[in-house]
Amino acid sequence: MKLNFLKACASVAIAVIMVCFNVLIPTMALAASASAIDRDARASLADLYKHTPGAKALGDKAVAVLVFPSIVKGGFIIAGQYGDGALRKGGKTVAYYRSLAASYGFQAGIQAFGYVLFFMDDESVRYLDNSAGFELGTGPSLVVLDSGFGKNLSTTTLQKGVYAFIFDQKGLMGGVGIQGTKITKINP
User: Fold this and answer.
1) Of 64, 102, 115, 182, whose CB neighbour count within 10 A is largest?
2) Do residues 144 and 102 make contact, with C-beta atoms less than 8 angstroms apart?
3) How far is CA 165 from CA 108, 113, 114, 131, 176, in A?
């Protein structure tokens, strides 16, 4: 009984945090300008390509690349994460997105990281464009690649779905993941 009560409280708390992120954050000064998002996205992508040749090969084959240069995650028991990014096609930014997530469990600390999503087919990009909020892990297949795999990556088998690289992890927080993250289109 007590465990069910705690789960219900945690679920309500996560829902409240997500509503606050969606309602309050767009009007706060935390939102970056389009030029700042572009600058940071270009720099992050160039750095990833420089240090992970497989990511460059993947980017060359991708239909679109969604770059989140900086995601900030923090909390104690209940945590939230937030960041803005740019969708790039043909080397140019075509749209802007916000990444939001909330979680609960045994966790404490604050952390910053970035991630890049490589959309390998038009169907995956259409899903991003047409959904009211792309939720990682529920749409097109998502494969998270680490830097070790990325250095030896062969793009011959990477044809469909979405591939992700997490990079520049800094701070102290138990584990980093992007499952359950909601991505929505914004107009900075």
Assistant:
1) 115
2) no
3) 23, 11, 8, 22, 12
> Is the CB of residue 149 less than 8 Å from the CB of residue 183?
no
Give the angle subtended at the CA of 127 by the CAs of 29 and 62, to the nearest 5°: 90
Total structural domains in the chain?
A: 1
CA distances in angstroms from 91 to 4, 41, 66, 170, listed in the order given? 49, 11, 11, 27
Rounded CA gap, 48 and 93, in Å? 17
Q: Residue 161, SS3?
A: coil
- CA 125, distance to chain mean position in Å, is 15
Based on DSSP, count helices (H) and strands (E) in the chain, helices before strands: 5, 6
Whole-angstrom CA distances from 112 to 14, 152, 188 are 20, 26, 21
Domain that holds residue 92: 2-186
pLDDT in tens, 102-149: 887 777 889 999 999 999 999 989 988 887 777 765 444 455 555 444
pTM confidence score: 0.74
